[in-house]
Structures are given as structure tokens and as C-alpha cells.
Design brief:
The chain is mainly alpha-helical. The chain has one domain: MFS general substrate transporter like domains (Growth Hormone, Chain: A, Up-down Bundle), CATH 1.20.1250.20. It has 21 helices and no strands. α3 runs antiparallel to α8, α13 crosses α14 and α15 packs antiparallel against α16. The longest helix has 40 residues. It is globular, with a radius of gyration of 22 Å. The termini are close together. Its main location: membrane. This is MFS transporter. It is a multi-pass membrane protein. It holds the Pfam family Sugar_tr.
Length: 462
């Protein structure tokens, strides 16, 4: 029996309330991640000021990078740990991730030193890294083939932006009424609310059919879950547990896995350099001194329209063209911004060019690679969790490097060098996408990952 036939009831299922509920349950973790990562960019100067660290302090650049970067170091570790654990059950540890995020977010309000805050944000990162592995994995394995791209793009691209804009709105709403010290504690701790809201729902998510059949080998439970989700009777009797080794999959498809990981590294290196320091360093360089206002303008005018544009086309024209073109134009606009910055261009011109970079990035990489789509689509079931962990850890490593590298380039070297450098990285990413990534739109996960082909090549009957 062919694998594609076994999963056909799920792949051909029409979009319904099951998908909407799964979208909310999985997407709220990424909403929290967007909130937690964006909120620190809004208040980091207030945080440093509270602890007596100013631009004239010798440790200024260090703590600027450490408070932004510790969460990504934790996320890389969390991704690797929970990527391994995902083969013990997709839902076994689902809910633990947002519980960690809830606890860590609350603890941020009670720190008394920058070192304590860095440690707590490391803990938050473990939760976000786990979520970036488990949530796209579960969403992809529950999705139908036709709408999988939109579901992942909305759940892990658009939801991140909603978290981002929520942080800015809260900042704008309460900042006039409280002290800076109280402001950053409230802003950071509020990230616990969305994370806590889905702990219970995540514990009730059904185990994925692909895990049950291909990894656990539980045919009866597989039939039960498929009937629950599709409302149709299925009676698979054949044992289709994957007996191939993980090493064999990496031997056959390791190059594609590596490309997916490198792409997320490049996109997070550039994306978080701009995301973390856009509201402060970049905004001030063009005359905008309110970080929340800058963040809202970029997100509402450029980011959201870009993501809605990408979502509307992702299952029609495909992942590869969107990401390649988005990366190309993101790189071009960053380089133009860098060239114009030192020659005194009008602030409105600089704002528009920077905004167009955000639009381009949102159309492509913002809803594909950085939404975790490639890792879950190009990897067969048995190694999907591990490959997703690799791509997440790679991306978070890029983000961690950006949190330390960007302030040094922007402050100590030159603004234009920093922007052109990251623009060039996006041009590289565009080429890598076009030549190194297979198209997966409209295909079942078994077709997209070539799992059916690979099991035949390594000697397993499908």
C-alpha cells in the first residue's frame, strides 16, 4: 500500500473547524514568541538605564547584545532537545513549551540585575525553541495538502507579527502613565498571558497520524485518529512502521536539509538584526525616537500587507518563487538604504525604503523559512522532528549572532556597512532558495519530502 494512499483522507480533507482550532492552538506559541522578542527591542534601553548602563558605559554593547541574544541561545538548545523528544511523540511534550514560556515571561518582572534578566530570557528561549519545532511539525502533519502552506504561513508567520504589533500597542497604551522601570517589567511579563492561554488546549491536541503509523507503528490508533479528524472510516491493517535508519535519510537527502538550515540562519541573521535594533538604532538614525511608533509603522504599513500578499499566493505560485523574489528585493532595499543613509537623504525616503525591505521580507522568507515551513515539508516523517530542530537551531544561532554583531557593525564600524552587509546576505539567500530548494506546494508531505521514493531507495517496501 502506497504511503500517499494511506494519508489521502487527511491530505484531501476540506478546510474546516479542526484546522482553525489547530491553527489557534499551535499559532499562539509563535504569537508569544513574536511578543517576547519584539517587546525587548522596545524596552531594552529602559532596561539598561534602570541598571545604570548608558552609551558611555564600557559594557553597553555587551549587555545590548546579551539581553537580546540570550533568548536565542536558549532557543537553539530548546530546539535540539525537543527535536529529539518529538520522536517520542509529537504531543507528548506539547504544552511543556508554552508552560516554560509562561514561567520565564513572568520571572522577567522580578529580576534585579541584567545578568538575572539574561538568564531568565535564556529560559524563555528554551520554550520558544521547543515551540518552533513542535508547533509547525504538528500543524503540518495535521494539515491537508491544499491549504498546508497557508496554515503554516498564518500560524507561524502572521501570528508572529500579531505578537509583535501587540507589544507595540501595549507600549504605546501604558508608557505615558508609568515609570520606565515599571514599564519594561510589565511589558516583558505580559508575554505570559498568550502562552498560558493555550497550555490546556495543547494537551488535548490529538497525536498526529503520521507519527502513529510511521514512527510508533500503532495501526489501530492511527485508524482512530484519522476517523476522528476526517469523519470517515479507514481500515489500514498493514504495518507501515518506518524501519529505515535516520542515517540513511540523511545520506540521501542531507543536502536539502542543510540548505533549509542555512536559509533560516541567513534570514534570522538579517531579520533579527533589523527586528531587534530597528526600533532603536535604525529608527534614531532617521530621526524617529519612539521605538513603538517606528515598530507600528513598519509592521502595519509594510509588514502586514506583505504577509497577507504572500499568504494569498503561497499555495498558488509556490514557496520557491515567493521566497526567492522576496529575498532578492529585501536585499536590494537594504543595500539602497545603506547607501543613502550617510548622504543625508530625506527621513521619509529612508523610512519608505526601509519599509519596502520589510514588505519584501514578509512576502517571502517571513512566511516560509522563518515560519518553519521548509524543515517540516522537505523531511520524511522519521527525521522530520530532527531536521526541524536543525533548521530552528540554525536560525536561532543566526539571531544570536545578529544580536551581538549588529550593534558592533552599526555603532563601531558604520551604519552603511551594517546595512549593505545584511543586504548581501539576502541576495545569497535568494540564489540559494532558487537553486537549492524543491517546490512543495500542493503536495502531500510524503510527496514533498520524497519519503515514498526514499524508502524504496534505502530498501524499505512502502
Amino acid at each position: 500500500m502506497k504511503l500517499t494512499d494511506v494519508f489521502k483522507p487527511l491530505d484531501s480533507k476540506k478546510f474546516d473547524m479542526f484546522h482553525i482550532k489547530a491553527l489557534f492552538t499551535t499559532g499562539m506559541g509563535v504569537f508569544t514568541d513574536g511578543y517576547l522578542l519584539s517587546s525587548i527591542s522596545l524596552v531594552i534601553l529602559d532596561v539598561l538605564s534602570t541598571f545604570g548602563i548608558t552609551k558611555s558605559s564600557s559594557s553597553y554593547e555587551f549587555w545590548l547584545g546579551m539581553l537580546d541574544g540570550s533568548v536565542f541561545i536558549g532557543a537553539a538548545l530548546g530546539a535540539i532537545l525537543f527535536g529529539y523528544l518529538s520522536n517520542k511523540g509529537r504531543k507528548t511534550f506539547y504544552g511543556v513549551d508554552v508552560a516554560i514560556m509562561t514561567i520565564g515571561a513572568l520571572m522577567q518582572a522580578f529580576v534585579s540585575t541584567p545578568a538575572e534578566l539574561a538568564i531568565v530570557r535564556f529560559l524563555v528561549g528554551i520554550g520558544t525553541g521547543a515551540d518552533y519545532v513542535l508547533s509547525p511539525l504538528i500543524m503540518a502533519e495535521h494539515s491537508n495538502a491544499k491549504d498546508r502552506g497557508k496554515l503554516i504561513a498564518i500560524g507561524f508567520g502572521l501570528m508572529w507579527s500579531l505578537g509583535d504589533i501587540t507589544a507595540s500597542l501595549l507600549y504605546v497604551g501604558i508608557s505615558p502613565f508609568i515609570s520606565a522601570t515599571m514599564l519594561w517589567r510589565i511589558i516583558l511579563a505580559a508575554g505570559a498571558i498568550p502562552a498560558a492561554s493555550v497550555i490546556y488546549l495543547r494537551r488535548k491536541v490529538p497525536e498526529t497520524s503520521r507519527f502513529l503509523l510511521r514512527i510508533k507503528g500503532d495501526v489501530n490508533k492511527f485508524n482512530e485518529v484519522v476517523r476522528e479528524i476526517t469523519k470517515t472510516n479507514v481500515a489500514v491493517k498493514e504495518n507501515l512502521k518506518d524501519s529505515a535508519s535516520m542515517r540513511s535519510y540523511f545520506a540521501k537527502a542531507g543536502r536539502t536539509f542543510a540548505v533549509a538550515a542555512v536559509l533560516w540562519f541567513l534570514f534570522d541573521l538579517t531579520g533579527y538584526a533589523n527586528g531587534l535594533f530597528g526600533p532603536t538604532l535604525i529608527a534614531r538614525s532617521i530621526g524617529i525616537y519612539n521605538p513603538a511608533i517606528f515598530s507600528l509603522m513598519i509592521s502595519a504599513i509594510f509588514g502586514f500587507p506583505g504577509k497577507f500578499t504572500g499568504i494569498s499566493f503561497i499555495d498558488r505560485i509556490g514557496r520557491k518563487p515567493l521566497q526567492a523574489l522576496g529575498s532578492l528585493f529585501e536585499g536590494v532595499f537594504l543595500m539602497v538604504f545603506g547607501f543613502l543613509l550617510p548622504i543625508g537623504a530625506l527621513p521619509i525616503v529612508l523610512l519608505l525604503i526601509y519599509g519596502f525591505h520589510e514588505f519584501a521580507g514578509s512576502v517571502g522568507p517571513g512566511i516560509i523559512s522563518t515560519a518553519g515551513m521548509l524543515g517540516v515539508e522537505v523531511a520524511p516523517t522519521k527525521v522530520r522532528g530532527l531536521v526541524q530542530a536543525m533548521t530552528v537551531a540554525s536560525g536561532r544561532t543566526g539571531a544570536a549572532i545578529a544580536s551581538f554583531l549588529f550593534p558592533v557593525l552599526f555603532i563601531s564600524v558604520s551604519k552603511e556597512v551594517a546595512m549593505v552587509f545584511f543586504g548581501v546576505l539576502m541576495l545569497i539567500a535568494a540564489a540559494l532558495t532558487w537553486f537549492g530548494v524543491p517546490e512543495t506546494k500542493g503536495k502531500s508531505l510524503e510527496e514533498a519530502s520524497k519519503e515514498s521514493e526514499l524508502v524504496e531507495k534505502i530498501g524499505e517496501k512502502s
